[in-house]
Amino acid sequence: MAWRGVRDLFRRAGIDTAELDARLFAEAAFGMDRLELVNRERETVPTDQLKLLEGYAARRLKGEPVVRILGEKEFWGLSFKLNAATLVPRPETELVVERGLEIIGPLDGARILDLGTGTGCIPIALLTEYSDVTAVAVDLSPEALEMARFNANRHGVGDRFETLKGSWFDPLEPGARFDLITSNPPYIETAVIATLMPEVREHDPRLALDGGPDGLEAYRAIAAEAGLFLKPEGVLLLEIGSAQASTVSDILVGAGFQDVEVAKDLAGLDRVILARLTAAS
Ligand SMILES: C[S@@+](CC[C@H](N)C(=O)[O-])C[C@H]1O[C@@H](n2cnc3c(N)ncnc32)[C@H](O)[C@@H]1O
Questions:
Q1: Residue 12: how many CB atoms within 10 A of its CB?
Q2: What architecture does CATH give domain 75-276?
């Protein structure tokens, strides 16, 4: 079958995951699941589907990652659609969702703000877990917000999900207050971006990666204003780079947060910071 030819092409090109990639492309191009691909091995594939498969293969051979070509990524057990303006959601970001659920779980009708929402993966995952929660999602990129809107509708939470275009807190009404503010902001130092793996460096949007010369610009901007938009008992929940825990904690304390806690991901790396304006009693 055609996908085996693609697999062989990928092998000759030195792609480590040649068989898996070829199968995934064939499943998407032919609209089949893994079992069908095996069971319908001897059927002739329509030309338009073959062309689709060849198109995917050509892009992969130029180094584009599979998730970018297929335009879908699973996060929190949900499928998120991607475009060129969105970061591919990372598994470690699920820790933001886990900690967020602990915070909003005991509340009635919690209101969430997600800054730099990309695909909308963080707030959409939270909304799917509690039906009385509402979320506002902000991003500088209108194309990213289009994806977030699509993903919210796809997962049945669109009526509780609002998108706003602008920089961090700029598009919000001054009186808006939230129980939880989440963000996985850009946190890579500008000079380090050129050293990242090609699939990140060349395919994730720069706006999603670049945290400025020291990687901390977004944290400073968010910490400076978050207190104005949190309810008194509200929590700011930020993803961080694994080496940023102490500097981001200092930024938060400097901005008036009193209760700052760092949480580690499954790899044992510092990954998330929770901050409250008042110390826990
Ligand atoms: C690291 S990505 C995170 C995307 C998504 N939340 C996730 O976890 O996969 C950072 C996001 O912040 C957005 N962004 C960058 N600068 C921004 C700003 N000044 N205001 C709002 N969003 C911004 C980018 O467009 C990008 O979608």
A1: 10
A2: 3-Layer(aba) Sandwich (3.40)
At residue 165, what is the residue type? K
Closest Cα to atom 9 of ligand 1 = 89
Give the CA distances from residue 204 to residues 86, 201, 239, in Å, rounded to whole numbers and listed in that order.
7, 6, 17
Q: From the options 1.10.8, 3.40.1170, 1.10.287, 3.40.50, give the CATH code of 2-70.
A: 1.10.8
Q: Is 80 in the pocket of ligand 1 (CB under 6 A)?
A: no
| Rounded distance from Cα 33 to ligand 1 centre (Å) | 33
The pLDDT score that the predictor gives to residue 117 is 98
State in Å: Cα 120 to ligand 1 middle. 10
> What does residue 157 show for φ and ψ, rounded to 5 degrees?
-120, 15
Give dist(CA 15, CA 154) in Å, integer.
Answer: 33
**Structure-model confidence comparison of residues 92 and 42, the more confident one:** 92
Measured in angstroms, how far is the CA atom of residue 210 from the centroid of ligand 1?
Answer: 10
| Residue type for position 80 | F
Q: What percent of the chain has pLDDT over 90?
A: 91
